[in-house]
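Continuing from the previous page of notes. For each protein in this section, the sequence appears first, followed by its structure tokens. Read the first protein now.
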Amino acid sequence: MTPGKSYLTSEEIRPLAERSNLMGGWLVLHCWGTIALAVVLFGIWPNPVTFVLAVMIIGSRQLGLAILMHEAAHNALFKSRRWNDIAGEWLCGRPILAELAAYRHYHLTHHRFTQTDKDPDLVLSSKFPTSRASLRRKFTRDLTGQTGVKQLLGQVMMSLRFAGDQDAIQAAASDFAQSFKAPHLWQSLPIFVGVMVGMGIIGDWWWGLAFWLLPYLTWFQFVLRVRNIAEHGATEQSENPLQNVRTTLANPIARLFVAPYWVNYHLEHHMVMHVPCWKLKPMHRLLMSKGLGAQMRVAPGYGHALAEAGWQR
């Protein structure tokens, strides 16, 4: 049974679960439009501040593309499975070296066995709470590109090692799906490079390196880790849907740089996983109106979520 049905009626869930092709298209357009505006910002006012802002905004929108691919994996971005597959794969997943099919298989397993021994994401959340020093080391590796380079090299090595061996690739695919990585790297790499080339054509030759590869290797890795920690880090390892996952309230700055497209409402997403992301906030309000707030694991901000995971230790 869907966990949400223990707290919401079918009549309450039905309108929340309605999908919209118009909204799905707008979200994809908004994500790519924000990326374009960040590049334009630097192009009009080229200086160190706009450069850093562009890298951070684009890195957060790379996470945004991952989130929209996640929506498509749940068939929640568009009304039809076909459009979810097309947009989720080619407009959202491939440009960030992710692969919809591999991610969908792994992620639905995560929903089925959340915070249990069969959860493929447990390896990510079981490390928390940890120490402040450990978190600082992880964030430093992310922001200096060490994590991104290591993971990219891992993809390359797996693709070379298992070239032509589809069974071996699929066996290793879940390790990459956890971090939105495509097991069939060579099928996604042309799209990733194509975005870089496009940026170089509209600007200077180095723009693709600076505004696609650099955000991918740095800020995207950082916000991806923050997101993973906030969602399940230092939560209850149980089947209680109100305590084995965390919703983190996000102000406009956090939504711009860390938590795009309502990804912060993760408890609500686990309640009814096919509710589109843009309806998770209304769902949160509905749950709160039922007096469930005291039972729900809700952090008032990402600083508080990180504190629970060990930042204050």
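Done with the first. The second protein uses the same format. Note its length before scrolling.
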Amino acid sequence: MILDQIRLPVVLAPMAGGPSTPELTGAVTDAGGLGLLAAGYLSAEQIGSRIAAVRELTSGLFGVNLFAPGPATAPEKYAGYLAALGARFEVGAARHDTDDWAAKLDLLVAAPVPVVTVTFGCPSPAEIARLHGAGSEVWVTVTSVGEAEHAVGAGADVLVVQGSEAGGHRAVFRDDIADDAGDPLSLLALLQLVSAAVEVPLVATGGLTTGAGIAAALAAGAAAAQIGTAYLRSPEAGTNPVHRAAIGGAAPTALTRAFTGRRARGIRNAFMDEFGAAAPVAYPEIHHATAGLRAAARAEGNPDAVNLWAGQTHSLAPELPAGELTGQLAADAKNALERTLARRFPAR
């Protein structure tokens, strides 16, 4: 089990769309954690080059995250939304794709990495068996007990348990039927429910920006914590300047489909407030349609028309090199656990 082989219980979240870099992945791995590399929005050829770059930077264990493809959305379900956006912005073409899923699987079978993690769904048992046959562990991100049971049944080795506090996209298998049916579960509640339902190791993610937060997740049954937002200000991260400037501020976050058609948590801005209520469930169609306007906003330094993905505790994110931050988070978690035990359960 890979979790038994890493020195520190810290896993780098695979932040697609810019922040994830080979340098960030390698720095977390070399510090004793597990670096993950985001493959989302990249072609199989591009992620192959990035995997090679990670291998040049570190000889340690690392993993690659894939986006599981979902069903296409009928154009009539998002045409009105795009028309409303088009009255204010230059909107691109909406389209469905699989994020090069099949080619990326082929790549990772031909040139395996220690861990393959999957978000937005669960690979089929046959696909998991292919990755196992190549020597990779398969981790699946889940947001409910039902998803957890499905993933374990398909052969997942580890579950990444994502609480509602997490920044970026919700990892629900079916965004059109999951979160809208009720409030998404917080990390602590979800950890308890999932650990009671399945018997595979759990990695906790969502709102864990400090050692104390990691300690709480470990005490609740997690084997490690997956951290994203806390690394967004690290120099190794490819976070764009507009996004980097917003992290560490006090602005609140909210869940929205406004930018991509899939529910995601980001720092509230004018675009979210104006268009969030009308945004349809249509991923990746809306993601592609708004890609150009978001790129333009980043180029202009305009934080009000770009997705500023961040977890609920983003105001606590430090500005530290990734290796230093990894060691500090682990040390702070250890100290928090020891202090709590000594204070609440003193020796007699």
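What the second structure shows: The first strand starts at residue 10 and ends at 12. The chain has a mean pLDDT of 95. We return to this in next week's lecture.
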